[in-house]
Amino acid sequence: MTTELRVPDGPDLAEGVAFDTLIDGGMLAGRVGDEAVLLARRGDDIFAVGATCSHYGAPLADGLLVGETVRCPWHHASFCLRTGRVLRAPALDAIPCWRVEQRDGMVHVREKQAPDAPPAIGAAPGIPRSVVIVGCWRHE
Known about the structure:
Blueprint: E1 17-18, E2 27-32, E3 35-42, E4 45-50, E5 64-66, E6 69-71, E7 78-80, E8 86-88, E9 97-103, E10 106-112
Antiparallel strand pairs: 1-10, 2-3, 3-4, 4-9, 5-6, 6-7, 7-8, 9-10
């Protein structure tokens, strides 16, 4: 059995997109190499983070941009756009971040940044030690 590597949809953000195409408070899903990347604009700041939620893989471009955070459209996990850190459960893992360069009216996504050290368990208010999802499954 062979498997093909699927390149994510959207523009190649390493090649660049015009700054003016990103409205303040807007998001754009694209790619850098074979990785899905989300661009988000807040004022003159542009952030580049992983395009999928680390909890269950939801497309963050379908979520909400609130301040300098992005919220998952499926389960409302929240991530910091500057660091990729988890701010709200149920996600427990950070999302990656890339360096962004603005030049001549264009926005280019460059290299992936080293992740910040995660906060110690219990050190960040609002991040639980674990998450339990209770539900009912019925098979007939």
